[in-house]
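User: I'm curious whether this sequence folds into something compact or stays loose and floppy. Could you predict its structure so I can see for myself?
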Amino acid sequence: MLGYTRICIVIVCFINYCHSASAQNAIPGFTDSLAKKIEYYAAKKQQGILFAHFDKTVYTNNENVWFTSYLLNANNNKNDVLSAVLVNDNDHSIILKEKFVMDKGISFGNMFLPDTILSGNYSFMLYTNSVVNGQPQNVFTQPITVKNTNEVSYKTTLLLEDTAKIAPPTGRKILLVTNASGMKLIAGATVSYYLGDKRHPIMAGTVKTDAAGQYLFTIPNRDITLGNNTLQAQITYGKETQLVKLSLPVQKNVPPVVRFYPEGGNLSDGVVSVVGWEVKNGQGVPYAATGILYRDDKPVDTLTTNSYGMGSFVLQPQQESRYYVKLMRTDSRDSAYNLPKVLPNAPVVTMVNAVVDDTLRFMVKSRLPGKFYVMVHNYKQVFFSFRMQVLSNERKVKIALDDLPKGLAEITILDSLQRPYAERLFFAHYDRHNTVNVAIDTNEYKTRQKVNLKLNLTGPDGKPVTGAVSIACVQANRVEVKKATDIESYFYLNYDLGQLPVKQNYLGSGVADKAFLESTLLIKGWRRYNWMELMNTTVADTVQRIDPLIIKGTITYLNTPLKKPVNYVILKDSSINTALTDRDGNFAFTNAGLYTLGDKKIHLFVTGKFMKDYVFHITDPYDRISEGLADNYVPSGYNYLLNKQKEDVDDTREFINTRRLLKEVKIKGENDELLYGAKNACGDYYCIFNILDCPNHRNDPNNKVPVKGKMYLQVDVDSHTLKNVVYQGCINNPDANAVDGIHYSMEFYPADYAQLSPTEPEYLSTIYWNSLYSISPKNQTPISFYTSDITGSFKIIVQGVTDKGVVYGERTFVVSK
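Assistant: Here's the prediction. I'll summarize afterward.
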């Protein structure tokens, strides 16, 4: 594909950049074995960092999802397939699944959200075909929001009838109400409901609305517990289905969760220590809190956390005393939280700043003199190791970090028996940023006006660098802060530390940004790894068997096994090929044999007089892995509705333009062909721009059926440019068995209103998407595209890789009439 060779060079350079440092000042004998253990541990845990740039996080039904995935720090030759599944956060069901070609660590994808998808929270789960012990090594999850813009004939609401804090003995009563236009009553509608997790509900059933279009639920108090307090109901009436839910007040007050994180790992008798602390409510939501620190039942300090639920304080603990914190303004009866046990003679490592540039300063404190060993590493390799003798209460250390890559690293303090006494996380070279300069004509455009865009990449030294990036220009309110991810934050923070409190720009240069990361490193990164697991790792653990994912099949005749090979026909992308089974009717696909354009399927059949008597049985190993990931996925809790007594179906008022467009389309005709555009039996069509199977106009009413032998435009999978092709016609066999192919992504075609300006409104929230754009100091090719008929704020998001690391940048502009 276009640019893959260049991209491969960029990624290889990036990987070498991240692993250029080597162990220095090693202590012979002592750390040699530890360095080997860390080497084994890194090999045992070897896996790439998979990241995907999605064009936005808020979608509507009948809309394309575009993404580019990057596999970093991995043996890319083992990964040539990317599987993408869309999972419903409510019930873990798989809504969509497709496979895409991956080459040299890059994969492009686009998936179409059907008209029937309901509003709600969903997650795309992506993984490559590098599988060890049945589990994919490289997984990435992108949460999204879906808004269904279909016009509905009725509205459904759940109402909590009794809002008292203490529920009546008979239980909570929740009224389901349906309202329709024209005073019509939605009587006899089917209502399927469940309380808690749909896979293991506390209660579930199916009922009907009464003559007034209502139904009254009564939920016993004993069944309403934390984590199982959401009532969900799906209403089906005619061809319409709606989903509503309501979070019910929990009868019993659940105490907040308070945790303490002494810097370095332990409180030491008589040694001044910094202690991080974190406060979350019973649902795991961090919040700003105030508490009183007690020593032996006497208050000694007032403590606070920030809005992210994180804070810190200084303490000189005494082993004979008990320390605990009581939160202020809490309804919990159990509001006393004990600090960890105070240990005797334990060393303490402390830093004034853990977010540093090129120099790290820290102190090792000990009440008694002692000899220690210091290792600076990242659980993949050792960068420094040296002896240290603490003669007084503390020993100050300064380390130049020239040989460390940018990102997270650890200081581990050990004794002579290689036992870790203390450990501290820090972030090196925070000031080293690759920068993408996003230049546009102006900050304000008119509708259907041309936007000219130029990109420049510079490294930390300000000099131009080479890179490959994906580019999105989307309606700004389609990118939610709570669900957005960027490659820089994910690569340097989220991948190692897991989910962090919702924040915009985790790696910003402001004082508040650094303060947030300081708290995060003290709390979120504390004791991230199991040292015992590392010490028990052997060279045998480094040998990993990659399980091949091969799609196989078997042909039977009249449901009985074959006794001799049989020829079968493969229909793919308007081409016909034949293949031969073995004597038992078995066959297998190569990945290359499954490569198809767009979202097309591969069709199989046996020719001859008795072709209908042959049955194909396909086994797809990706299905098992996808179902396992979906079933075990724990989605983030984005909405906390304990104090909200009413919840309707998702509000789509901000997408009124899309809804208005659908209404205008429906006026044109009453049948599906007029509503969704013309297609032939193979699903082929061409749009107003003469592009064959154009993804931007998938259901456009102006689409027409292509004619065999005529010329159309189609994207070339190698050059990623439009070329003229002669349509070969639709080869449709209704008796053929369909197999999902491994797809080349379809190309995004930005509107060119200078060539053709439709009279119908164009409400496109993604006005530009470029799956991969190569940038070098010598390549400054300008990019141009047009705004649509949507007004308001738009955001240009650019992210990808350079030969100096990952890069992320954005720019906003406004569209007006």
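Summary: Residues 1-24, 639-654, 659-671 have pLDDT under 50 and may be disordered. The radius of gyration is 30 Å.
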